[in-house]
Amino acid sequence: MRISITDRCNLRCRYCMPAEGIEKVPMDRILTYEEILRICRTAVGMGISRFKITGGEPLVRRGCTDLIREMKKIPGVEQITATTNGQQPLEMIAELADAGIEGLNISLDSLREDRYAFITGGGELNKTLRTIDKSISSGIRTKINCLLQKQFNEDEIQDFAAFAFEKGIEVRFIEIMPVGFGNPESGLSNDEVLEKLQERYPELEKDETTRGNGPAVYYRLPEKSGAIGLISAMNHSFCESCNRIRLTSQGLVKPCLCYEDGVDLKAALAEDSDEALRAALEEAIRIKPAGHTFHDRNTVEPKAMSQIGG
Ligand code: SAM
Ligand code: SF4
Predict the structure, then answer these.
(1) Domain tally for the chain?
(2) Which ligand lies nearest the alpha carbon of 182?
(3) Which residues span the domain enclosing 164?
(4) Hey, which of 16, 88, 118 would you mutate to test ligand 2's pocket, going by the most ligand atoms within 8 Å of its Cβ?
């Protein structure tokens, strides 16, 4: 289960949020940490054991590490990971490691300072690079998520691959989706990416060992640690094997990233017993659609990615 804990963000990635931001959801409509913990306990009782904390930028919400610490105490929770832009003070990474976080997915679309600042609306590349090093040295399983766009960063595919092998981590290329401000026409298909990678690394081989909970297909080099992951939401749908549900910061459970529909947990949260909550979560899983229809824009979720959690 992906849990978005905030719609706020300290960056303005062009495909995610406009420069002027998006109207913020008032704090009294954002789930409290107590409510999130209650949802987690109920979800664990249904067999959901792995959680990813997301946002907006999750690390800007005060008390985020305390939430993770409390989630780790719930019997049956197997894994807590988070996704971040890596711009927060470095001490937070040590705190997250201390809280017991298993993994961090760090978003990074360029290894060049000017491009990074441009695509993120003012982010500082060095901060994110330092976060990556700190995360690795703190023993947190570290993955990079990179969105490629034509005529912007497509010439960095091989640099990112070199970065993955040098650091011994996974860099995953994610196809841009038409959610929020994302324009798939500007994106690259992962087939094109693989071709570029094979030009530089002809010995690249498919890695059949499972590396995570998700839909990435991995490639590696013999005798080298680190890997390249391709997450091909647009061109090779993996819907058949999708095991995700998404909780927005306002308490909507989305069965699929593509559609606006979901099950609102607010009424169930107002009840004393957890029965209604469990029924609502079960309903969200029951109505999981057979697949996405990202290619028909009229059907796609109008909310921004920062309001959903990615
Ligand atoms: N702020 C955190 C971050 O950037 O990692 C967490 C939230 S962010 C919405 C989660 C992920 O969604 C990021 O890796 C971002 O690149 C990705 N994302 C945002 N808009 C997207 C789009 N239109 N298509 C594909 N991925 C998108
Ligand atoms: Fe913020 Fe993440 Fe969206 Fe970038 S992708 S604007 S860091 S929520």
Answers:
(1) 1
(2) 1
(3) 2-308
(4) 16
Rounded CA-CA distance 237/214 in Å is: 13
Task: Read off the CATH number of the domain in which 192 is found.
Answer: 3.20.20.70
Residues 162 and 200: their CA atoms lie apart, in Å, by: 10
Tell me the C-alpha to C-alpha distance, in Å, between residue 281 and each of 131, 228, 253. 35, 34, 7
Structure tokens at 11: 């960056």
User: What whole-number distance in Å separates Cα of residue 278 and Cα of residue 265?
Assistant: 10
How far out from the chain centre does Cα 241 lie?
Answer: 17
Cα–ligand 2 centroid distance for 201 (angstroms): 31
pTM (whole model) above 0.90: yes
**pLDDT score of 116:** 98
pLDDT tens, position by position, 27-73: 999 999 999 999 999 999 999 999 999 999 999 999 999 999 999 99
Torsion of CA 304, 305, 306, 310, to 10 degrees: 160
What does residue 220 show for φ and ψ, rounded to 5 degrees?
-140, 175
